[in-house]
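Q: What does the predicted 3D structure of Holliday junction branch migration complex subunit RuvA look like?
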Amino acid sequence: MIGKLTGTLLEKNPPQILLDCHGVGYEVDVPMSTFYLLPASGDKVSLLTHFVVREDAQILYGFATTAERDAFRQLIKISGVGPRTALSVLSGLSVTDLAQAVSTQETGRIVKVPGIGKKTAERLLLELKGKLGVDLGLPAGATRSDAQTDIQQALMALGYNEKDASAALKALPADVGVTDGIKLALKALAK
């Protein structure tokens, strides 16, 4: 419902901030990774949001990056993991660290997050496997270009799973543009 807020930062009280958007003050809960990136009070800020409606509350969660919001959304899909726990995980681990822990199935990293026990950590690792953009078949230390990321997201938006999208990306030239890359990937997937 509310996907993004842009306005003036009025207050910072971890983990909550108050954001003034044209005279309306929004209380937004943010992970500490986002909190540390916020400007000083009185400055303009833009946050991606996730809106949660419960029987007793309506809560906005804010994120500095799309990756953080996507990780948050994957976390809250897991049985027994609510928005507060997901916020705690993203406050204790960066999205990259979480993705690495998931790809290596390393419970030790997850257990270090306050409020996460061994059973919950194991469930997180199991449920998130293949969903955080980690198992993409990239060699260790390799990074994917923005164009390749955009191509993969487009393929997934068209209904292809992450494994198929990644396989199609491997066949593309490294310097391909987004439009051409999507066309070539769709041709490869159609075979």
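A (community wiki): The structure tokens above were generated from the sequence. The first strand starts at residue 4 and ends at 13. The CA atoms of residues 36 and 121 lie 25 Å apart.
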